[in-house]
From TrEMBL, chain A:
Protein name: Membrane magnesium transporter
Keyword match Transmembrane helix: yes
Domain of life where this protein originates: Eukaryota
Localization per Swiss-Prot or TrEMBL: Endoplasmic reticulum membrane; Golgi apparatus membrane; Early endosome membrane
Alphabetized UniProt keyword annotations: Endoplasmic reticulum, Endosome, Golgi apparatus, Magnesium, Membrane, Transmembrane, Transmembrane helix, Transport
PANTHER family hit by this protein: ER MEMBRANE PROTEIN COMPLEX SUBUNIT 5, PTHR21181
Membrane-related topology note: Multi-pass membrane protein
One Pfam family named in its UniProt record: MMgT
Principal location listed in the UniProt entry: endoplasmic reticulum
Transmembrane regions: 41-61
TrEMBL record, chain B:
Quaternary structure (record): Component of the ER membrane protein complex (EMC).
Source species of the chain: Clavelina lepadiformis
Protein name per UniProt: ER membrane protein complex subunit 2
InterPro entries: EMC2-like (IPR039856), TPR-like_helical_dom_sf (IPR011990), TPR_EMC2 (IPR055217)
Membrane topology, as annotated: Peripheral membrane protein
Homology family: Belongs to the EMC2 family.
Claim: Metal-binding is one of the keywords in the record: no
Main location: endoplasmic reticulum
Alphabetical keyword list: Endoplasmic reticulum, Membrane, Repeat, TPR repeat
Record Gene3D superfamilies: Tetratricopeptide repeat domain (1.25.40.10)
Role played: Part of the endoplasmic reticulum membrane protein complex (EMC) that enables the energy-independent insertion into endoplasmic reticulum membranes of newly synthesized membrane proteins.
Amino acid sequence: MSHPLKKVAIIVGLACIVHAGFSAAQHRSFVRLTEQEFSSLPLDIVVQSILGLFLASYGILMVSGDFKNIQVNADMKEKSFETVGNRFAFCTFEHRGKALYSRQ
Amino acid sequence: MAVSWEEARDKLRELRDSNVRDGESVVDLGERLVRKYSSKLGDELWLVCEQVFIAALDVDRDDVADMCLEKLSSNFPKSSRVMKLQGMMLESQGCADEAEELYKTILAQDPTNAAVRKRLIALSKWRNWKNPGATIKMLTEYLEVFMADNDAWLELADLYIAQMDYDRAAYCMEELILSNSFNHLYHQRYAEIKYSKGGKENKELARQYFAQAVKLSNNCNMRALYGLLMTCTSLCGKVSQSEDSKNKQYATWAAKMIAEKYNNTWVQDKDVSLDGKKNVTPSKDVPQLMASVQQSLSLLNLQDGVA
């Protein structure tokens, strides 16, 4: 799925949840006005909120980038001391660079 | 240049994250990016500027360095990070005293600025390169305050190694292993220091740590594999009979793993060239490397160990 579609999934999912919330509030006020006993929310609101939840979480998972490996040393495996031993904070500039790359 | 700006940006990002000090390619990729595409980079521009600036100092390209510094200082006029870069510029021009003065004025305003303190240490490393004692003193004082700085511990270990003070270097690596026990490179480094120290106990310890490094890296760390082979071969004949056979076993295993890796690179490269795609030259030193492995095994009369 392309990137914009994933964003649409988030928006639709969130809208579903918000809409379900309003419907639930409305249902409560309807129940109160008609002086009925409140037992539970109607099935369509429950289904809608659950669907919205899944849709929104799917969209967010897909948009926020790739998963990282759960193992601690997963991204260390390919590294060698040649790069990890480079410490830019302590680098000095008095080295062969001047001789190698001087343009005279 | 055929590289698009997106590719250049991604490549620079990769180089930045993997800590490679390759000034030439960074300047090649980054100069055009900073000159022409600075509006497209967004906030990443400043990171790229800093990266290209340091790379330009490395390869003596003052024009590129000036350009990056100008961009940065016009956007962040009072930033101590940019002032630190100015100090680095002075360092690269050989003006150590001016650089030191600049760093000290930054520190007077903000005594907790770790990056600038590290520059002062680097400056002392450059000035006293013949006698690292003064630098070591500064670095230990720094580490008393910033104990969680892994780079500083590594640097201190290197300075001690330069003085052949292996015990203290080993202590630094122990600190690092404590702070990050899943990093196979720290185990490998520690083992190398112990191996350099020599002696039976140290080498046995080195063998353990090399083995741990190999295990943590899923048999990927070639240097640790070689280290394991070397320690086991050098331990042979110096320990008891049962230990000896174990060492031979470990050495054979390490040699097998190394040989397997060399064979794999050989085959992979050959396949690529057969397909008529990019002609990757197979690493020519494979036979030589195999010979060196065979040689160290032949010291143990175990040639048949290598498949």
